[in-house]
Design brief:
Blueprint lengths: L46 E5 L4 E2 L6 E4 L3 E7 L11 E8 L8 E8 L16 E9 L3 E9 L6 E9 L6 E7 L13 E10 L14 E2 L20 E11 L11 H9 L2 E6 L4 E9 L2 E7 L9 E4 L6 E5 L2 E4 L5 E3 L5 E7 L8 E6 L5 E5 L3
């Protein structure tokens, strides 16, 4: 009986295709430049109401809101496109009307320059990009997205239009972005690349019209004057999810990451340490007779030495020393902060220097977080 031989053979790179590997894709890990594009992480909470002219991060991590007309509730929603694998979306809901296109309503995605060096901007080999996202709104019409390269020598911008064709219906949009051969993306941990989705804007952002190609920066080139405009009615709302930005000329399926990986990527910029009552802050030791401190280690290396973001006062935290509570009676501060840890301290009721106890939260509104956001 003949025995078949097993022989090895080399395979050329050109012979290895997506169809020939089990996953159906090649080198897909972290191809999405966007962090938390599926809106699954919301460390700050799932909803913030009465948002007006204070720009910032609300609800979903890594999504920065600007609401200069109207009053809004910004939330992590469970309204998602059917059959796409998404669980959450980012929602902006106008609860008190302003005047649409009298001022700006937009969201931003901010990116460190050091993460984008492989785009080779500023060279003849600058990579093209594909942006895809799912969007839904009550108001049909023309909307715009702009990309800004925040170069210290000369900022650059490119902008594009898209349309929402059917009210209250999830639609997938795809935008092709050329590489910028004129200016590099600077290699820093700072905000060097920003994406703007414009839902309402004054003439300062629309008078020049979209560019469709990279040009020297002008805010007037973010959008066209026919921007549909949200914020003029309490019926106005917009949802977005499945945001992906990747190198190439053809869009691929959304890259879903494990929840723990997605969370860790977000924690580089914002780390929610605790929220609520009866939570352990740490082992508090009396640095002086009226000052207590503890060491907090961050779960991942943060982008820069963070600041503490905390609710504080006489009823939020207590240090228990030998069974006796010592109220924290002032704001929380940080000292000796670096990328991986900090010394958290606060003023408290008097005790003996050098004594230690358990520092806990004693209020349902207690919250301690650390921020190194862009």
């Amino acid at each position: 009986m003949a025995i078949d031989k097993v022989v090895s053979a080399s395979i050329t790179d050109s012979s290895v295709t997506s169809a020939k590997v089990a996953s159906g894709v090649l080198q897909t890990n972290f191809r999405n430049i966007i962090i938390n594009g599926d809106m699954s992480i919301a460390q700050r909470g799932t909803s913030t109401s009465s948002v007006t002219t204070t720009d910032g991060y609300y609800a979903c991590d890594r999504w920065y809101s600007q609401t200069d007309t109207g009053t809004w509730t910004i939330s992590q929603s469970t309204d998602v496109p059917t059959g796409q694998g998404f669980v959450n979306s980012f929602k902006m809901d106008c609860t008190s009307a302003g005047t649409s296109n009298a001022d700006e309503v937009m969201i931003r995605s901010k990116h460190e320059g050091q993460n984008l060096q492989y785009l080779k901007y500023g060279t003849s080999s600058a990579e093209g990009l594909i942006l895809t996202f799912w969007i839904k709104s009550n108001k049909t019409g023309n909307y715009y997205v702009a990309f800004v390269n925040n170069n210290s020598t000369q900022d650059r911008v490119v902008s594009f239009g898209y349309s929402i064709d059917s009210a209250d219906t999830w639609e997938k949009k795809t935008i092709t972005i050329p590489g910028d051969t004129s200016r590099s993306i600077e290699n820093t941990v700072n905000e060097e690349f920003t994406i703007y989705w414009l839902f309402s804007a004054a003439s300062a952002f629309t008078s020049g019209g979209v560019s469709n190609t990279w040009i020297d920066y002008s805010a007037s080139r973010f959008a066209n004057s026919d921007l549909a405009g949200l914020g003029g009615s309490t019926s106005d709302e917009v949802y977005m999810t499945g945001v992906q930005l990747e190198v190439g000329t053809a869009a691929s399926d959304f890259e879903f990451l494990p929840v723990d990986v997605n969370l860790q990527r977000c924690q580089r910029y914002y780390f929610q340490y605790l929220s609520g009552t009866s939570k352990t802050v740490g082992i508090g030791s009396y640095w002086t007779t009226t000052s207590v401190d503890t060491i907090i280690n961050f779960p991942v290396e943060m982008r820069s030495a963070p600041s503490v973001v905390a609710t504080s006062g006489s009823s939020y935290y207590t240090v228990y020393v030998a069974g006796n509570g010592r109220a924290i009676d002032a704001g929380l501060s940080v000292n000796r902060t670096n990328l991986t840890s900090t010394q958290l301290y606060a003023s408290t009721a008097s005790d003996t220097a050098g004594r230690a106890g358990i520092w806990t939260s004693t209020n349902s509104s207690a919250s301690i977080a650390f921020s190194s956001e862009l």
